Amino acid sequence: MQVVGFSLVLFLFLILSFSSLSFALSNIEASFIARRQLLHLHENEELTESYVESYKTDLKFDNPRLKNAYIAFEAWKKAIYSDPSNITSDWVGPDVCSYKGVFCAPALDDPKIEVVAGIDLNHADIAGYIPPEFGLLTDLALLHINSNRFCGVLPKSFCNLKLMYELDISNNRFVGPFPQPILCLQDIKYIDLRFNDFEGELPSELFNKTLDAIFLNSNRFVSTIPENLGNSPASVIVLANNHFNGCIPRSIGKMDKTLNEFVLVNNNISGCLPVEIGKLSNIEVFDVSHNMLVGVLPNSLHGLGKVEELSIANNKLTGSVLHGICKLPGLVNFTFSDNYFNVEEEGCVPKSRKNIDLNDERNCIHGRPKQKGESECNVVLSKPVDCSKAQCGHTSTPSHSNNPPSETPSEPEPEPEPNPTPSTSSPSIETPSEPKSPPQTPETQPAPTPEMPKATPPPTPETQSPPTPETPKGEPPSTPQTPKPHPPETPQSSPPPPQEDDPHKEAPRGRPRTPPPTHSPPPPVHSPPPPVHSPPPPVHSPPPPVNSPPPPVHSPPPPAVNFPPPPVRLLPPPPVNSPSPPVHSPPPPVHSPPPPVHSPPPPVHSP
């Protein structure tokens, strides 16, 4: 009987263990996988030339590159721990071009052979990591794996992907410093790292590359913005919801011919607005709200002749709101609320002009409604800042104290028990105490707990879930332009994935649109063949497309245009459906309709 009882218990244990495998991985399990990968990558991330030759298989391939691709996909399958939709279930056999989410095209250097040119696994909810063997996909021009649960770091072998043109790994769980392998990719034009857990400093080399679109928002980067920012030819740069500090580099003025959209919402940027911003004659969206900018508005801002959305809200700016800004010809939305302005010049009073949304609330303007109290205004107005003499501090410590980074989670612990906590808890609201009181260790872990202490931060639709990218389309990438029928406009109000510790991080922004992948023509012709004319199928990288017309020809990323004047700006949600790289076609300005409303389930009539 004892043997029978033991056998029954063992049988039940096996059944329960098997059934648990069918569920998606939890956050804790995903974190464990990431840590395990970090422990082993150092030994296995280098691919040797003899690796492929030593790989034994009886399968026959049309060419050696397809064999390499087969080896890479076999390794990737083993690195996947959860695939709820069974996307990779058909990754079997030598015909890798028939694998779901994989697209082939004629090689650039030899059009007679087919090679893997693109991978689109957007919104598949796959959990796993990127193995070193991924570097065998040397013809890959487009990689879209946004809205999954890939974790760990990008292997060094990523440097082998010389033809990579468009990279979208947003809305995942990647960690570590800015991925250095990306800096090895000479032909890359579009990178989207949004909504991950990258941290540390931003490498200055990034702005020396010929990128057209850079999306780094909603990570944990902590550093000043490199002084060579102006060297970048990018048309769209989104750095919102991080912990950048210091000043806006004066070199930004060198981007006058290319920059269409610059979003720096919700960071710890200080100092005055550089006069060089007035040189950005092609800028259409400029948003530096929710920072710590001081001083007066430079007169040079009247040079923003094409600006449509301008937000400087939630800073410590003083002086006058200049009529030269309010009368800019293309201006649709100008938000300067939550500052310390005490004068509104002609044409800047809300509702004084048609077709322009002006917001002056929470300032110090006499006679206007919803302004700050006199005592609150005097604290700042009594200490004017001379921007001609002011110097910008570059230390990162002060920045932490002003806008709590996601590390704030640690604060909750001291509050409950220790007697001294009361004193520290009060400052915690602003986060000045953050660096001091709680241990720093929790920064990457307790995502949920931190939100309670952070209730104070500015508005933030933290509860909303990131937009769900549309499922990858399985169309072959034959036509480079077809994939990009409409660069999606990012869903407006969807906050980052739950992993974001800082609820307020995304709160401040909201531009209903986040530039889609900039014109991404097929990779240059000089290296192993990525799809010359056909990078993988359309996979709209930025958030789900919203009735957007086909992209115009010849302009880079999507400058936002004709946005209704919503004062509330929400940073683009995690990319969804990344469009395959179009050829010189910037996303057209599009009015993004509100996200679809899911109707509740029909009532169930009980018999």
From TrEMBL:
<feature type="compositionally biased region" description="Low complexity">
    <location>
        <begin position="422"/>
        <end position="434"/>
    </location>
</feature>
<keyword id="KW-0677">Repeat</keyword>
<feature type="compositionally biased region" description="Pro residues">
    <location>
        <begin position="513"/>
        <end position="607"/>
    </location>
</feature>
<feature type="signal peptide">
    <location>
        <begin position="1"/>
        <end position="24"/>
    </location>
</feature>
<keyword id="KW-0964">Secreted</keyword>
<dbReference type="InterPro" id="IPR032675">
    <property type="entry name" value="LRR_dom_sf"/>
</dbReference>
<dbReference type="InterPro" id="IPR051582">
    <property type="entry name" value="LRR_extensin-like_regulator"/>
</dbReference>
<feature type="compositionally biased region" description="Low complexity">
    <location>
        <begin position="395"/>
        <end position="409"/>
    </location>
</feature>
<dbReference type="Pfam" id="PF13855">
    <property type="entry name" value="LRR_8"/>
</dbReference>
<feature type="compositionally biased region" description="Pro residues">
    <location>
        <begin position="435"/>
        <end position="498"/>
    </location>
</feature>
<keyword id="KW-0433">Leucine-rich repeat</keyword>
<keyword id="KW-0379">Hydroxylation</keyword>
<keyword id="KW-0134">Cell wall</keyword>
<feature type="region of interest" description="Disordered">
    <location>
        <begin position="389"/>
        <end position="607"/>
    </location>
</feature>
<keyword id="KW-0732">Signal</keyword>
<protein>
    <recommendedName>
        <fullName>Cell wall hydroxyproline-rich glycoprotein</fullName>
    </recommendedName>
</protein>
<dbReference type="Pfam" id="PF00560">
    <property type="entry name" value="LRR_1"/>
</dbReference>
<keyword id="KW-0325">Glycoprotein</keyword>
<dbReference type="InterPro" id="IPR001611">
    <property type="entry name" value="Leu-rich_rpt"/>
</dbReference>
